[in-house]
């Protein structure tokens, strides 16, 4: 892994190329591409110092996953080490339970520091286990990380082999002092605290037996059911104007056997569907061909643009850029919001069951989205249309991105992020090229390095050549309004820039209003700054985001400007 390049003066173009490389890498991840060419993982067993034997298949390690990190940990507290394996692709995490049979002695030690002389996790401390019949100790060190972006459990594991007696344990606490402990029995867990320097036996909790999953067995047909925990509007589709009642949009082809089987089952269950209040709207990908095959349901062809819109929409939901198959279906509630996405055939009974969740309370949507029981500790997610618009932008469809956000804003107004994005798109930010990006990157680098005068000139050059680059205007306004050097501050210029940004977003973006208040206060218009910042505080959705604004409000009431 290479390090991030310097972003000092003259390095902006290189920094841009570096970021573009990461974006390309990220794209491969979203597409479930393999970084290793589906090369299988390998595992080798130590033959007691006489070489290594390949036991990849026998041990179960030979997955073709793009594995990135491996940690060993006694997950089930049975005295042997199990393995956690993380991957770039799915499944992201695997637990490999060690069932080889533990016939020898072992020891588990956990260190706890007092937080004064020794850090609480005792990172950097070492444990020596002296066993009978061996001239040198078994040694383990407490680390702050075990593998790539991963950390094993807090217990240090010692395999004692045939040794039945532990002579002593020596703990070296961060290299500052040591303690010697006697009376340790093998095949047990102990906790040793730095302040007491005593080993206290620890009894692990009783665990339910792990359920073994069947690996690498694919179904005959790839099918998926995706329930949206926060519903989003359907993008504009030619040939579908929406209903004021629940409806299922189905993409099908007359040459697709699973499609025909699916639609025959639905046709036979037409009465059940009617009783459930669910309409079926068929959209044929073949054009006009086949639209009359199933007269029980409304049917019309779908354009390539419509297919593309639905494809980009579904890619945004799980952030996996796998193409939309045929058949595919979209279950839509009476407000024209997508509730469920189906890939592959959908049994009639599944449709009938899912029709009931359309009118269910919001709390139940997220529960329905998870195929296993559990308890949520976070608040309900809010719908995020910017993920959908980002897909359109990535596909070089800025007009569709703007249209989708405007549709969302009409139904659910006053979302600051949405309003801001609409302003950006209307301002033409999507049309900037590498030259404008390089200029903006250079200006940001100069600002971050402390050369704010040069940053100001570069921001102004960016705006002269590319007047619709909103970030340049925003960043420039912050310097001109709040720089600690009074000779750099230009309050009236900052007010003009911030005012333009507020006007573009209809005075509904709290971050721009916040910026305008800073410029007003710098110009000694404290009454105006107070009114503006109060409006910004009211618009902030998250209280944590409003905290800095509230601090600035107190400054303005004291007739003091905000200095960054």
Fold blueprint:
Blueprint: H1 12-30, E1 44-46, E2 52-54, H2 56-59, E3 67-73, E4 82-87, E5 93-96, E6 105-112, E7 126-131, E8 138-141, E9 156-161, E10 166-173, E11 177-181, E12 189-193, E13 199-202, E14 224-233, E15 247-252, H3 257-268, H4 270-276, E16 279-284, E17 298-301, H5 304-318, E18 328-332, E19 337-343, H6 348-355, H7 362-369, H8 385-394, H9 398-411, H10 416-426, H11 434-449, H12 452-465, H13 470-482, H14 491-504, H15 510-522, H16 526-539, H17 543-557
Parallel strand pairs: 6-12, 15-16, 16-17
Antiparallel strand pairs: 1-2, 3-4, 4-5, 6-9, 7-8, 7-10, 10-11, 12-13, 14-19, 15-18, 18-19
Helix pairs in contact: 1-11, 5-8, 8-9, 9-10, 11-12, 12-13, 13-14, 13-15, 14-15, 15-16, 16-17
Q: What order do the strands of the largest sheet run in, or round the barrel if closed? A: 14-19-18-15-16-17
Assign a percent range to the helix content: 25-40%
From the coordinates shown, what is the CATH architecture of the domain at 224-369? 3-Layer(aba) Sandwich
Shape: globular
Number of strands: 19
Strand content: 15-25%
Question: From the alpha-carbon coordinates, what is the Rg to the nearest angstrom?
Answer: 31 Å
Q: Which runs of at least 5 residues are low in confidence (pLDDT < 50)?
A: 6-10, 215-221
Major sheet summary line: 6 strands, mixed
- Which structural class matches the secondary elements? alpha+beta
Quote the distance from N terminus to C terminus.
Answer: 35 Å
CATH fold annotation of the domain at 224-369: Glutaredoxin
Supply the CATH class of the domain at 224-369.
Alpha Beta
Q: What is the average of the pLDDT values?
A: 86
Alpha plus pi helix count = 17
Q: CATH superfamily assignment of the domain at 224-369?
A: Glutaredoxin
